[in-house]
Amino acid sequence: MFSTLFTFVPLYAVSVSLQDYSAFYICFAVAVIATRLGVQHLTQAFRAETVATVASLMNVGSALIIAVYPSTFTFGISGILIGLGFGVIFPALTIYVIQRISPAIKGTGLSILTASGDVGNALGAAILGIVAEYFGFRWVFALSALVVLICTRYFYVTLTGKAAADDLNTTKQP
Question: What is the total count of domains within the chain?
Answer without folding.
Answer: 1
